[in-house]
Design goal:
- Helices cover about 45% and strands about 20% of the residues.
- Strands 4-3-5-12-6-11-9-10 form an eight-stranded mixed sheet. It has a two-stranded antiparallel ribbon with strand order 1-2.
- The chain starts with a helix and ends with a helix.
Length: about 300
Amino acid sequence: MDSHDDGEQNSLPAWRARTALPPLGALRCFEAAARLGGFTRAAQELHLTHGAVSRAVRSIEDALGVQLFERRSQRVHLTSAGERLRDATAGAFELLAATVRELREPPRKPALVVSCEPTLLMRWLIPRLPAFQAAHPQIALQWVAGGGAIGFGAVDLAIRRNDFAWGRGVHALHLFDERIGPVCSPAYRDAHVEGSGRSARFTPDACLLHSATRAGAWNDWARAARRKRPAAATAQTFEHFYFSLQAAAAGVGAAIGPWQLVRDEVESGVLAAPLGFVADGSAYYLLAPAPVRAGSPAALLAAWLRAQA
């Protein structure tokens, strides 16, 4: 029994001698000296004396039985062995520092990826996102612009108007009803709108602005408002809905604007709404691939969106 114990004890120092690392502090001194090109700079960075750094490097050389630096003309130069150890220690300390940073930082929950129609995202949501972040700092959101059919998997949630079939298995939370009305610049209103209130109408020389993505917007408004569509002298069509609203703000003509998309400009006076807004029967919804649990991030987002509307 005793001889067995003695055998184990005699073998341990030899095993450790082959695998033991030099002290971490000494390796840090070597890494700094190799990276900075000298013991003096390493000592300054580590708040040590020149002699302490030199002794630390010498202890590693003695332990490994190799020379790490050549000392010539009061300067030090890495040997080939020193270059190999420099590369190893640099990578090891970088990995160690990265791991420490990760351990110190609180774990982050993966972001909810939310798809939203581009114009609604740009003109309504983005200006209000700081308020959401302040109200729900624990919820991380990643926004992507998109319209039409939703590919759940690539996204977690989607905000869409109910102007197309969502498909089976989609769960919808109502956010707000759509209201639409003609908008233009205040100067354009003064030059091309006659009357006020219910009797207000565009003059025959007005220009109606259309978009390819909402080609029937003027007809939809006329039907919802129970008015005749203006008999305008000219018209211009833009590829995207967003462009038609920008053209209206610039004084090119009058465009149909959904209330949520133009409310900031109307309230600030950039746009005028001389004929008001009416509900067109459509609405926006938050769509999810499964029922939304009360108190979940999706439910909190839906409640916040409703409050903004």
